Amino acid sequence: MKKLILTSALIIGSIALYAQESASIKIYPNQGKEIIPKEIYGQFAEHLGSCIYGGLWVGEDSEIANTDGYRTDVLNALKELHVPVLRWPGGCFADEYHWMDGIGPKKNRPKMVNNNWGGTIEDNSFGTNEFLNLCELLNCEPYISGNVGSGSVEELAKWVEYMTSDGDSPMANLRRKNGRDKPWKVKFIGIGNESWGCGGSMRPEYYSDLYRRYSTYCRNYDGNNLYKIASGASDYDYNWTEVLMKNVSHRMNGLSLHYYTVTGWSGSKGAATIFDKEDYYWTMGKCLEIENVITKHISIMDKYDPGKQIGLLVDEWGTWWDEEEGSTPGHLYQQNTMRDAFVASLTLDVFNRHTDRIKMANIAQIVNVLQSMILTKGKAMVLTPTYYVFEMYKVHQDALYLPLDLICDKINVKDNRTIPSISATASKDKNEIIHISISNVNIEDFQEVKIELPGVKINNISGKILSSNKITDYNSFKNPNVINLKEFKGAKIEGKILKIKLPAKSIVTLTLE
Ligand code: AHR
Q1: CATH number of 38-398
Q2: Does residue 323's CB lie within 6 angstroms of at least one atom of ligand 1?
Q3: Is 278 labeled as catalytic in the residue annotation?
Q4: pTM of the predicted protein model
Q5: Cα–Cα distance, 165 to 116 (Å, whole number)
Q6: What is the whole-number distance in angstroms between the Cα of residue 315 and the centre of ligand 1?
Q7: What are the residue boundaries of the structural domains of the chain, listed by start?
Q8: Ligand 1 pocket check for 90: Cβ under 6 Å
Q9: Are 495 and 445 in contact (CB under 8 A)?
Q10: Spatial separation of the C-alpha atoms in residues 421 and 443, rounded to whole Å
Q11: Hey, whose CA ends up nearest to atom 5 of ligand 1?
Q12: Ligand 1 mutation pick, 93, 148, 316, 321, max ligand atoms within 8 A of CB
C-alpha cells in the first residue's frame, strides 16, 4: 500500500513548523457534566481465528498454564486492563451460532463449520458457561450477541432464560444440570449483528420488524434487566439509523455502529507493519473521520430521541490490515505497531467527547484478531502497543469528563483531510484526581504543550509514556518488549501553567494530585 500524501503543516498564528511545535490546552475543571461510561473501554471476542481457542481458552488439559481452561497469562494481563464489558460470540459468527450446541458435556457437543472465518471446524468446547464464567473471572459485564440471521425467536428466548432465570423453569433447570445453580447477570443483549450483511442481508425496514419480534421475547427474569441493542449501521449508512430510529424507537436501549480504520473492503488493506509516513498520517485521518460519522448518526438519533435515552454503541472499531504472511487465511491475524496505538488513543478521545450519546464501544478484538490487545503463539504471549493505550486510559473509566480547548498545529493529509497534531482527554475521578491523556501525533517533532487548569492546585505530578524509535515498531515473540510503558518525567509547573514536553509520536497519561 503506497499512498501519496502531502503532509504539509499549516501555520497557525505565527508558529511555523520546526523541530519543536507548540500547543496549548485549557481544561475546565468545574464544568464537567458527563461521566465517561466505563463500557467505552469495552472488548470484543469472536469465534474467529485464535481469539477464543489458543487465545483465551486452551482447555483444562493443555500444557499451556491455565486456570480452569483459560490461559493464565492472558487472564492476568486482561485483569490489569479492568475490562468493563466483553462482547461474544460474534460478529458474523453470532448469526450462525446455535447456543445449545455449546452447553453440556463437551464430548456430546456437536461440531460445526465456521463458514465466515476460513471454514475452521468449531468444536463448541467454549460455550455459554465458559464465556459467562470468564466474565466473572474478569469482573466484566457480558454482552451476548444473539442469532437473528439463522436462529429462531424461541432459541434466543430460551438462551436468555438459560442464562438469567432463577426459577423452576426448563432452561434454568437445564443450566443447573450443567453445573451452574445460580443464574449469571447478563445486562447487554444484541439482537443480531450486521443484519444488513453477514447477519442476514436485510433491509432496515424488515430488520426493524424482526428486532421488534425477537426482542419482545427476551424477558427480564428474576431481577435481571436487559439492555437491548439493535444491530446498527456500518460507517456512512445513515439511512439504516434513520429507519431504525423511526420504526424501532424506544423499544431498543441501544443502537450499534461499526467503524473500522481500513483502506477499503476489496483488495489489499496494506501490511500492518510496513508503511511510510504518508500511510501513517492517512490512517490518522481515516481514524479521526469517525467523529464526523458519529456526529451524523447522533444528529439523526437526536431528531427521534431528543432526551438521549437510546445509546449509540460502537460495538466494533479498530484497524483492519492485511493478514500476516504465513497466518491462516480468514483468521484476521495482524501485528500491531505504534500506528495502531495512535488509532486507539485518538478514537478513545473521540468517544470520550460524545458520552452524552455513546454508551459503549468494543474494540475488535481482544486477542489474536485485528487490533488486538494481546497476541499469542503456543505458550508465548505478547502485549501490543494498543494494550498499553488501554492500560493508560483505564483511569478515565467512570470518571467525570472535563471539557477542554485545544490549540495546535494541523497536518494536511490525503483525501482532503486535516488532522490536529495533538489529541487529548481529561477527566476527574472519584478521588478528585485529574488525569490527562495526550497524544503527539507528529511523527518527527516534539511538542511543548502548555496546560491551563484554572483553580486547580497541583501537589504532585506523575505520568506514563508510550513511544518508540520508529512508528513501525511492534512487539514480536522474539522481541516482546520493544514498546511498553515508561515513566514520564517531562512535566513541570511554571507559575499557574503546567508545561509538558511531548516527544514525537508519543502518548502520555498524566496524574495530577
Ligand atoms: O470483527 C470482524 C468482523 O467484522 C465481525 O465478525 C463482523 O461483525 C465485522 O464485519
Answers
A1: 3.20.20.80
A2: no
A3: no
A4: 0.95
A5: 32
A6: 10
A7: 3-33+402-512, 38-398
A8: yes
A9: no
A10: 9
A11: 91
A12: 316
For residue 193, the ligand 1 atom closest to its alpha carbon is 8
Instruction: Give the largest CA-CA distance in the chain.
Output: 74
Residue 194 annotated to the active site: yes
142: amino acid identity, one letter: P
Distances (CA, A) of 280 to 7, 8, 434, 446: 10, 14, 31, 17
* CB neighbour list of residue 108: distance below 8 Å, 6 or more residues apart: none
Pick the CATH number of 3-33+402-512 from 2.60.40.1180, 3.90.76.10, 3.40.50.880, 1.10.10.10: 2.60.40.1180
Contact predicate 370/318, CB 8 Å: yes
Contact call for residues 162 and 175 (beta carbons, < 8 A):
yes
List the grid coordinates of 95. 448469526
Reading the block at residue 382, the C-alpha cell is 505478547
Q: To which residue does cell 495533538 refer?
A: 422
Catalytic residue among 96, 316, 323, 391: 316
Residue 413 in contact with residue 419, Cβ under 8 Å?
yes
Task: Please work out whether the CB of residue 194 comes within 6 Å of at least one atom of ligand 1.
Answer: yes
Atom 8 of ligand 1, nearest CA residue = 91
What does each of the 513 residues of the chain score in pLDDT, given as a tens digit? Answer: 332 232 323 333 223 334 456 899 999 999 999 999 999 999 999 999 999 999 999 999 999 999 999 999 999 999 999 999 999 999 999 999 999 999 999 999 999 999 999 999 999 999 999 999 999 999 999 999 999 999 999 999 999 999 999 999 999 999 999 999 999 999 999 999 999 999 999 999 999 999 999 999 999 999 999 999 999 999 999 999 999 999 999 999 999 999 999 998 888 999 999 999 999 999 999 999 999 999 999 999 999 999 999 999 999 999 999 999 999 999 999 999 999 999 999 999 999 999 999 999 999 999 999 999 999 999 999 999 999 999 999 999 999 999 999 999 999 998 888 999 999 999 999 999 999 999 999 999 999 999 999 999 999 999 999 999 999 999 999 999 999 999 999 999 998 899 999 999 999 999 999
Among residues 96, 122, 194, 391, the one annotated as catalytic is 194
431528531: which residue's cell?
303
